[in-house]
C-alpha cells in the first residue's frame, strides 16, 4: 500500500462522475470542504488485503500525533501505484481503514471510492507537512495488542498473555542432538549432506522472524485448484473453502479422528467461547503464548474465543470421578474452530491462520513416568498418522525438542529415547527457566519452499494445569492427587497439513516433476470423457458403477474437443482419465491415461476399481460433493 499524507489548511473536492462500475453509490452531491486536517491519499496495491489496514492506521495515527492534528480525510487515490488491487479488494481495505480509524480518532471523513473528482488543496508549509510511506502487511505490528495513543480517549492497552512477553524475552540455547543422545551446540555443528532442512530450521529458530515477506507458492495452488481463498468480508486469517477444499478437509479430519479413536481417544465436544474472568482460565491465559479474540455480551460479560480445546476438556475432567485405574485418560476433540489473533504480517494462506481446525488430544497421567511412556506412544501415533496422510517423517519433517534445563538434566535417558525413536538428528532448545505451563515439548516441523518452518505434530508435558483446574484422581494409597497432562495434536492444524501437501506440490513443480495430491484426498479420482453425445449415457453408467465401489468420478460433458478435455483433466491433477468411444463401449476395455505414468495402459473397469481401492485402503471415503457433469458446475474464480 502507498500512503501520501498531507497536513493541510484545507481541501475542497467534488465528485464528478463514476470512473468504474464498482464505484460507491452514496457519493456527496456538490463540493465538500474540510479545514485544518491531514489528508491521507491511499493507493491499494496488488497483493494487499484487509490485513494491511491496521498497519496503515498505525502509520496514519503516528503522523497525526507528530503534526498534532485530530482531523483526518481518507482519500482513495489510485495514482501512487502502478499495480493496483482489484476494485473489490481496494474498497474493502479502504473501508477497513476507515472503521479502525473511527474507533481511534476524533474525526474521520472519507472521499468516495471509484469516482472522478476535482479537488483543491492547500498544504501547510512546515518540514513535516508531507509524508510518503510504503505500508507492508509484514510490518512488525502486534495487530491490536500493542499500546497505542487514542486521540479522543487517552491511552489504552489490550490485555496480552504474559507468556507472549516471556516468549520474546526468554533465554535459551539451541543444540543438535543425534539419535544416540550426543549434543552439539548449533554454532559448532557441521550440517551434513541430507541435513539441509535441519540447517534451515536451526537458522529460522535462531532468527525468530515469523513474518512473511514473499507470496507463499501454496497460496497460488490453493486458489488455482479451487481449494480455498481469502474472505474479504471476514477478519484476515479466516478463509473460505470451496467444495474441493471442504472435501479434502473432511477426509483428513475423519482419518485423524479414526486413528485417535484406535489409540484410545474418548471424543468429546466443548464450547468455543469462555468467561475471561473464570479464575482457572484467566490464569491459564497468561501461561499460553497466544493472542485472543474477545467478545462482549449484551450484559457486558467478557468472553474470549478458545485458542485450543484445553479449556473445555480440563473443565470436563474436573467434574469426572477418577482413580489411578482410569489413567492415562485420553480426551479428544477436533475443534472447528480454534482462534488465535496472529500478527497480520505472519498470516500466510493455509500455513498460518487466525481460525483453524485442530485435532487436540489430552492425556491425564498419574505421574511423570507414566507421562513419559505415554508421550512416546503418542509420538508413534503422530508419526504413523502424518506418514499415512502423505507427509513422511523420514524425509519431509524435522524434529524440534524444547525443554527446561532442569528437565534435560534429570531426563537425559528419556530424551535420548525420544530422539532415537525419531531416528534422525534433531534440533533441541533448552530453556534456562520454565516460561510456560509445560516442561517439555516436541514438534515435527515442515520446512517449506520459502525457508519457513511450520509445526505440524506436537506433544507437551504439562505440569501446571492439573492443579490449576482442580482436576483430581485417587491414587493407590487413597490420596487425591493432580494429574500430569499431555497435549498432543497428531497432525497439527488440518489446514497446515493441507498447506504442507500443496507446498510439496510446489516443490515438485520447481523440480520439473508433475505435482499430485494423495489419491485418497483427490477430489476427482477418475475423469470420464465421452467422445460424443451418444457416449454420455454409457459414461453415466460407469460413473454409478465407480461410485458404488467408493471411487470418485466425474464426467466432462462440455461442448469441447476431446483434446481440450484431456488437457483440463491434466490441469486439475486428476490421476486417471478415460476416453469413452464406440470401441470402449463394445469391448469394455479402456485406455487409461495415468497422470503419474508416461505410458498408457489397457484394463477393465473392475481392474481399475480394484487398483484404486487397494491404493486407498484404510482411508476414509466421501462421495463427490459437486455435480457429476462438469457442464453443471459453477465456475470458481481463480
Give me some keywords for this one:
638 residues, alpha+beta, D-tyrosyl-trna(Tyr) Deacylase, Chain: A, BirA Bifunctional Protein, domain 2, Rossmann fold, 3 domains, 10-stranded mixed beta sheet, 6-stranded mixed beta sheet, 31 strands, 31% helix
Note down, in words, how this protein is organized.
It is built from 17 helices and 31 strands. The protein folds into 3 domains: 155 residues, D-tyrosyl-trna(Tyr) Deacylase, Chain: A (3-Layer(bba) Sandwich); 264 residues, BirA Bifunctional Protein, domain 2 (2-Layer Sandwich), CATH 3.30.930.10; 114 residues, Rossmann fold (3-Layer(aba) Sandwich), CATH 3.40.50.800. A hairpin with a 5-residue loop joins strand 22 and strand 23. The protein is globular, with a radius of gyration of 28 Å. It has a 10-stranded mixed sheet with strand order 10-9-21-20-22-23-26-19-18-13. Strands 1, 2, 3, 4, 5 and 6 form a 6-stranded mixed sheet that branches. It has a 5-stranded mixed sheet with strand order 28-27-29-30-31, sandwiched between helices. The chain is an alpha+beta fold and 638 residues long. The protein is 31% helix and 28% strand. The longest helix has 22 residues.
